[in-house]
Amino acid sequence: MSESMIKLLIAALGQTVLMVCVSTLFASLLGLILGVILHITRPGQILPLPRVQKILEMLINAGRSIPFIILMVAIIPFTRLIAGSSIGTVAAIVPLTVAAIPFMARLVEGVLMEIPPGLMDAAQAMGLQPFQVITKILLPEALPGLLNSVTITMITLVNYSAMAGAIGGGGLGDIGIRYGYQRFDGAVMLATVLILILLVQLIQSAGHYLVKKVDHR
Amino acid sequence: MIKLNGIYKRYHSGPNTIAALDNINLHVPVGKIMGIVGPSGAGKSTLIRMVNLLERPDQGSIIVDGMNLLHLNRRDLAESRRKIGMIFQQFHLLSSRTVFENIALPLELIGFSKKEIKQRVEELLQLVGLADRAMAYPAELSGGQKQRVGIARALAPSPKVLLCDEATSALDPKTTHSILNLIQEINRKLGLTILLITHEMDVIKTICDEVAILDQGKLVERGKVTSIFSNATTAVARNFINATFHLKIPEEYATRMKPTPCDQSYPLVKLGFTGNTVDKPLISEASRLFNIDISILSADVEYAGGIKFGYLLAELFGTQHQCKAAQQFFIQNNIQLEVLGYVRIND
Q1: What CATH number does the domain containing A15 carry?
Q2: Chain A, nearest residue to B88 by Cα
Q3: Three-state secondary structure call for residue B210
Q4: I want to staple B91 with a disulfide (CB 3.0 to 4.6 A). Which of A73, A147, B146, B291 is the partner?
């Protein structure tokens, strides 16, 4: 492999890391908020709002059913509004975030459902207000599961980011397609795949480590 | 302190309506321990969860410390609930918080300073005997220790009422006793009014002043523990009471026992001591007065609510006339007497 190719790969790794990290950050925050709302507005939960719940449910399902490559193209005007441009690495962060929000929201909802309902009784009996239930009970108790959800979301975003080349986002996937596939360069293809495997391995290990650290169950 | 008036609660499942609670009227006076006992499915849990409105009644009023809870808005209700501590069968501690932090939670809500929290939590840890476990997580504790944390947490905001929802049902007998002792100690030391539900009459007998018996959503009997034990009128109550005594006629006696007196046989009697029984050494007195011998086969007598209570199986050795007179004497002193049969002496 030539030196220029190696430089290209390093630059691509940088783009992938940038896209994945920033979109993970935003998607986790927004997905967390949506997931919490989805959970607490359910009947029998601390803030039952059936109508809000239903609308949110539909939005999330819709968001999750659109293939990423189509979503990326479909929301170009929105991307331009947020990022100022519809092409490039920064622009790719917008569709990545949008795609990961409903995914994260569902994971968060699942984690919150695992919290023993008895804790909600105890919280109510102690006189916690709904907002206090979220900050003092739901989120701390769910923390190990939430960190795990962030890990899963981040790895999914590594996967999605491979398609960012379609709008000029660059990244390892883009190199793999353009150099590895279109130019039949097996070495480059192998290199991108290996780097991606290592990247995912690293994210997963870091995730495991953090989950273990905060889990006292 | 706690007044429930005309509480109704119905559940609908398809076309059927199930009355979980049916016209419950209950009053727990200040500083007393009241126990509600009943078979599973009787509505005990629903009833105790009404007192802090974890469940709402369809009808009726709930007054705790002079406040009608059903008239409060959400904020005021949360406020009022801080006066009502509650502990649970499954403890419901936060797994993400240490023992110290679990107990501190209700204090954070009231807005105690860090220093005040530390002082109060240490006090409570002392009270429940967990001073050395402050930094442990609930997962590292035994069931009994978890319930102690639950009690400390419930007591943190200095409530006036403590609700115990089957608080000892997940614990082994020895731990159950230590937790019951703690609850009683709290009642005496802090003057807390306590309402507990249980399916074990032993719990009632050990710590309650008053008892109510719940069956199929209705309060079928209620009164002082001693008077219910001595004068239970309903079958449900009797079953619960009998389950707490473990008296059996020895096998060897049963084979020699006849329903009617015959030659060389002596009466085997069951003597019941209740709240009404005259507090005197009646057995030895009877023996002296009527010149008979009394042999005790089996006994299960204990104190419940400060009164001697229980049953004795005894053989009375004397002439028929003497034995009759002794039996009369027991009855006059308000011992419940039942002749189980007549046992022939061994050849």
Answers
A1: 1.10.3720.10
A2: A122
A3: strand
A4: B146
Query: How far off is chain A from B134, nearest CA to CA, in Å?
Result: 15
Structural domain containing residue A202: 3-214
Q: By a Cβ cutoff of 8 Å, what residues of chain A touch chain B?
A: 116, 118-119, 121-122, 124-129, 132, 136-137, 140-141, 143, 214, 216-217
Q: What are phi and psi of B260, to 5 degrees?
A: -125, 155
**In sequence order, what are the residues at sequence separation of 6 or more whose Cβ sits closer than 8 angstroms to the Cβ of residue B183?**
B33, B151, B162, B164, B167, B194, B196, B207
Tell me which residue in A121, A122, A127 faces B79 most closely, judged by beta carbons: A127
Neighbours of A49 (CB within 10 A): 15
If you search the block for the tokens 């923390």, which residue do you land on?
Answer: A143
Contact A127 B81 (CB under 8 A): yes
H-run or E-run covering B285 = helix B282-290
The per-residue pLDDT string of chain A (217 residues; one tens digit each, 9 = 90 and over) reads 789 999 999 999 999 999 999 999 999 999 999 999 999 999 989 899 999 999 999 999 999 999 999 999 999 999 999 999 999 999 999 999 999 999 999 999 999 999 999 999 999 999 998 999 999 999 999 999 999 999 999 999 999 999 988 888 899 999 999 998 899 999 999 999 999 999 999 999 999 999 999 999 8
Contact A26, A97 (CB under 8 A): yes
Q: How many distinct structural domains can be found in chain A?
A: 1
